[in-house]
Amino acid sequence: MKAFYAEEQKRHDPGTYISRGTAQSHPEKPARVEMLLAGASSAGLIVERPRNHGLGPIAAVHTPEYLDFLEHIFSRWQRIEGASAEVIPHIHPIARNGSYPSSAVGQAGYHIADTACPISTETWNSALWSAWSAVEAAEALMGGGASTYALCRPPGHHALADVAGGFCFINNSAVAAQALRRSAARVAILDVDLHHGNGTQGIFYARSDVLTVSLHADPIGFYPFFWGYADERGEGAGLGYNLNLPLPHKSGDAAFLDALATALRRIRAFAPEALVVALGLDAFEGDPFSGLSLSTFGFSRIGEAIAGLGLPTVIVQEGGYLCGALGDNLTAFLTGFGSKQP
Length: 342
Description:
The protein has 10 helices and 10 strands. It is an alpha/beta fold. β6, α7 and β7 form a beta-alpha-beta unit. Helix content is 35%, strand content 14%.
């Protein structure tokens, strides 16, 4: 299995974010990369550097207004007297059907959903290379590979077409799926992160060519709170092409694997020609977010089950935060996946 990652992805280094009203050290740190690289190496993967793919594959799923904001907001923010070192919004529109603000402060609130996405001088470049790793993985798959892995950092599945959120700026899984559509009539995205992939759902919610399926902690008390419920099925042409499988907190391996079986049945019914796995490892029992209490062996079984679909697959890294087993959990998933792949 080919793997892709660029060193520029490490340069985004957020300082703090606010959770439950309290400023805390940001968990999406560059040190994650070294643990994930070690996990990929232990699974036998050779990591290659992606090429610069330009804005085209990214603009296929994000608005030009938003991408212009991401590229230039940090330099604009620095011209504000008394502004923070990082771009962090403090006000947000209640609804998004009003006027588009012209100020940097207003646009930060418009395009960033929460305080978890501080933007610094390196954020835009790191997010670009993260997305290009996903594009490279998709292109390698279309070139004849059975499966590929994109070590995407910053992650992406909370990013909507024009909104950053939950540590995410560019939706790498959506970028990969859209790239795969050049050769695949139907693409499925399976998100197994602890948190619901609200950005991915939002991007494809009215489309029938990309099926979105997400297993995640019940959002009634967990980020992203406003999305991820079982009654969200899509809209318009996309009605019936979105499946959410929220799980009780601390539910463990057995419940997750039961829900995964339901997800895989839906994917088979869609008959996709390619699959994107949005791989979060933060459902682990020892992860700082510790929401679903999965074991390392559980990740191996998840990988085996997904590989049983027999589909060309791009695995895109999403969450999974600093804990001693982060690399081991990636190794377990990749090894399990490889053991059952046809």
